[in-house]
Amino acid sequence: MFLVVGGTSFLGQSLLDQMKDSSYPLRILLEPAVESPPLPSGLSFDTALSSLQDERGVRAAMVGIDTILHVGGARLGTGPGDPGESQARGAEVLVSAAREAGVKRIVYVSQLGADRASAYPLLQANARVEEAVQRSGLAYTILRSSVLYGEGDAFTTGLAQLIAASPLFFMLPGDGTTTFQPLWVRDLATSILWALDIEETVGNVYSVGGPEYFTLEEIIRIIMHEAAMLRILIKTRPPFLRFGAGVLQRTLPRSPVNTHWIDYLAVSRTTDLNTLPRVFGLAPSRMEDRLDYLRDKNWGWVFLRNQFGRNR
Questions:
Q1: For the whole model, what pTM was predicted?
Q2: In this predicted model, what pLDDT tens digit does every residue of 66-100 receive, in sequence order?
Q3: What gap in Å lies between CA 257 and CA 254, rounded to an integer?
Q4: Domain range 2-145, CATH architecture
């Protein structure tokens, strides 16, 4: 039986959608929440309700599990505050319970740049979880992913909302030359599932990304083109943007940007273009072929609805 950790995340929902045709028993670990979490229809699964810090609840969720798919690590879109301590503590509880329950394998999705010495809390958090997984004694595979995009993401749709909310001008982080390798979320979800059938991936850490490199300025111009929005780009120092992101976090119910998000965009995130084809036999999608969800949508209205709609 699979246990999916982070099944309600952006990546988790794509992964579960691709598991609809699988006959393998599935359990989803859900964090307690006031609102009902977004779960896919047409999928047969059990649920376990527990925080990752709840040792008893996590142990109960492990009954009958042989494979863990942990796709709920800290990524773009993570809320305010330092996610490092809770992420690391939760991972330690998870792997300890997995060892006790005789779980055979764990796949963890981290992100490019994960490093304990990083200046950015998101990347420190992912590095600490990686270490817990590698020390667990379980057969493991770690995928360090580049920035993900797709309908409902925090990257392209967050930028589209910010562009729509910025009349005439848009503040470009830094000089716009930081470089990224955007990866379509369904390509990563496919790689996770295919890794389970590739014995060579056990005990390895892979850095994966899309088939193209783009500067941040190029990405913003692509988004403006697809969403039919035109703005004058004004190069802005990241400290000013970080301050502005902090203000938005404190004043908006659902800010499309946060300080972690600004930190992530401050440094280039790229890796080998050939890892997915070479290791997984997967040809990743070109970004401009997968942005149809940006078209024919009023992103200014989306921004307002997210802030003042009933579903917040």
A1: 0.92
A2: 999 999 875 555 455 555 667 778 888 999 999 99
A3: 9
A4: 3-Layer(aba) Sandwich (3.40)
